Amino acid sequence: MRTLVFFISVVFLHFGFAADNAKAHVDSINSIPYKYIVSHLKESIDIFSKNIGQARSLNYEYGEARALDKLSLAAQLRGNRCGL
Question: In this structure, is residue 73 part of a structural domain?
Answer without folding.
Answer: yes
